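Quick check before the chapter quiz. The format below is the same one you will see on the exam, so make sure you can read both the input and the output lines.
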Amino acid sequence: MEPTRDYPLFGGAFSATLPPGAIDISDLRPIPDNQEVFCHRVTDQSLIVELLELQAHVLGEAAARYHFEDVGEVQEARAVQVEAVQPILLENLALRDCCEEAWVLSGKQQVAKENQQVAKDVTLHQALLRLRQYQTDLLLTFNQPPPDNRSSLGLDNVSLPPWSLGDFEQLVTSLTLHDPNIFGPQ
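Here is the expected output.
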């Protein structure tokens, strides 16, 4: 099994530890400048890191719910269900010096893939890191499609297991800011 690796994000302005088998989607298709998107080499799992404008009108747990529901709207989800929202201890974050509050949310969204009619329940885990000094909400999303929706490419399934919540937690806690100029003049 290949090891986890630190990976530069947003042109090196950030870095984070990615789980084994992460493929940078920007090598395959255009991705918006405010996103970094990775997919699992074998399953349909994905990880997304987004730099978003700070939504100052929502506070605390409501901010995590706001972003979850916003993703549901963008994905044209037929149903959105929040299962849990909990604070993240800032001391566990590499970004603890510039993050004022952090939340993790787990939920399900019923979405259909492109060109498909049937909607499936996709489990989403999101971490929201609020960087007020940079007027930024940093949203990390771990998409876990249902098990029957995973690609089956034979032997690779044995050598590269699906990502876990521990892999997502490592991504969130390892996220490090190297160049604050990414946020523009302060």
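If your answer matched, good. Confidence is low (pLDDT under 50) at residues 149-157.
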